Amino acid sequence: MAGESHGVMRPEPLFDTVVIAGVGLIGGSIGLGIQQRFLARRVIGLDVDPTVLEAATGLGILDEEQLQAGDWLKEADLVILASPARTIINSAREIEPFLRPDTIVTDVGSVKGDIVKTLGHLNFVGGHPMAGSERGGILNADAGLLENAVWILTPDVETNFGALKKVRNFVEELGARTIEVDPIQHDYLVAVVSHVPYLAAVALTNAVANDRNRNLMMLLAAGGFRDLTRVASGSPRMSRDMVVSNKDAVREALASFRAQLDTLEDLLDDPEVMLEHAQSAKRSRDSFPIVKRSLLPARHELFLAVPDRAGQFAVITGALSDAGVNIRDLEVVGIREAGASVRLAFETEDALDTAKRVLKEKGYDARSRGQ
Q1: Are 66 and 41 in contact (CB under 8 A)?
Q2: Distance, CA of 24 to CA of 137 (rounded, Å)
Q3: CATH number of 301-368
Q4: How many CB atoms lie within 10 A of CB 80?
Q5: Top CATH class, 15-181
Q6: Spatial separation of the C-alpha atoms in residues 43 and 371, rounded to whole Å
Q7: Which end of the chain is more exposed for a tag (fewer CB within 10 A), N or C?
Q8: Pseudo-torsion of CA 360, 364, 370, 371, nearest 10°?
Q9: Burial class of 237 by CB neighbour count within 10 A (0 to 12, 13 to 18, 19+)
Q10: Is 148 left (phi over 0), alpha (psi -120 to 50) or beta?
Q11: What is the domain partition of the chain in residue ranges?
């Protein structure tokens, strides 16, 4: 069967070779997702920092490390530009001379207008996963960041439909949910829901820090204030680059936000109308969808490649039952023609280790998180 070698059973990957250019939090999380869900035969990391590459390899994210662009890129079927948004265009220019014409290039930048316009001559599909963490860097990479996250794709008139379809399929195999919008519309949308909230968090945090009653305010800063200002704990440099590179859309969104604040200030002397605004805001906030980042506990998980053969789940559950291992939860995370990727969750680390050993003895390719 396709995807079998040396007795190891795994589904056919979507790509032979995937290159991640920029191996940080998001790039590393994508790499983990690729490995855990068996989406590529080989993952190559491209980064200027050898210690980052070494760490990523140690975490099971990479199969190969590269410090600079070169002829080796001709082997790439998919390149993911995952460096900071301000460097994505330069990163693309560095690798462009070495790419095959059919190599698909995508990115994870938080601002899309200039990137899509500049890289449109490549086989390029703009992308932006709405996922992240206050804790950056490769050591905090987690495939769970992408599960059920909204991943925006930003095709334009130059986008190749075949490439778009493959990137969409890839993103959905990672567990994310795709939507497609125009690049300029994307930049305004993220200005409102991401960039302005960051600036608001910075403003509120600095207002407290610079107040003469700072120490008392810090003691009184309960859950509401902490939740509202949480994003100010992110990387200042990365966040600065994010909002500055989207300054036109951010200015438009700030004007709308400022108008709302002015309206609320005017309503301080009209409590009934203020109440109407507050009730309207509550209805809107309560209608927001609840996104569950992961359906299973992050700990004690095993990812398993299952071939497309009858009775495979009976073999798996039977083998674990005979070994005295209880499966806490089971989820099919990807189905392809040659088989499926399955995630199993267990109560304890000992149960996880036993399950991994038993299933490998049965010939399955079984990996725990981070392998």
Answers
A1: no
A2: 5
A3: 3.30.70.260
A4: 25
A5: alpha beta
A6: 13
A7: N
A8: 70
A9: exposed
A10: left
A11: 15-181, 186-286, 301-368
Residue-wise pLDDT for 249-292, tens only, equals 999 999 999 999 999 999 999 999 999 999 999 998 888 766 55
What architecture does CATH give domain 186-286?
Orthogonal Bundle (1.10)
Structure token pair of residue 341: 């990727």
Q: Which residue is it, tokens 């909002």?
A: 243
Strands in 150-153's sheet, in edge-to-edge order, are: 127-129, 150-153, 177-180
Q: Which residues pair with 44 in a beta bridge?
A: 19, 64
Output phi, psi for 62, to 5 deg. -115, 150
pTM beyond cutoff 0.85: no
pLDDT at position 7 is 47
pLDDT above 70 coverage of the chain, percent = 90
For residue 311, how many other CB atoms are within 10 A of its CB?
8
Q: How confident is the model at residue 328 (pLDDT cuts 50, 70, 90)?
A: confident
